[in-house]
Predict the structure.
Amino acid sequence: MITIDDDFLNNVQKEYLDNIFKSFTHNFQFVKDGTKDPDGNNHFEHVVLDDNGFTDSQLKDGLVDIFACFCKKNKIEYKGLYRCAVNLTYNLGNIYRTPSHLDHPFDHKYFLLYLNDSTGDTVIMDESNENPLKIISPKKYRGVSWGRNHHYFYFPTEGGRKVVIYTFI
């Protein structure tokens, strides 16, 4: 099931999200590959919650609260968050999209929160990983959740594509 919600955030949460890229207190690291395999899909990432549950990010409490708000409004049950990161992707010139992939080898779900309007659609694949099931355009404050389907995204044609990506069980 794919859930798309453009109206689940309150004004305080929106202001909180807007401030992520206005502050210099959040360290973004350059990441050479966008998936586990070498793919040259460079981007910048701020890890809020890593694969081991570790975090020293000041964004953790606010972003966990926003995740819980989305799940409550949309009646999505979860046992816990596995990973959370803020990603900034940009036009790479010669690479247009990431490979179709799963983030983890075990059963999990996704929640994606767009932080700005941009190009760079997200494509969620069907169970066979042969055909697109849903194509979602980035829209500021749009939340999208789906199950363990392969997915990929297109890099923006200009500017940056800012998202928070969560994986959860």
Observations:
- The longest strand covers residues 81-90.
- The two ends are 15 Å apart (CA to CA).
- The CA atoms of residues 47 and 131 lie 31 Å apart.
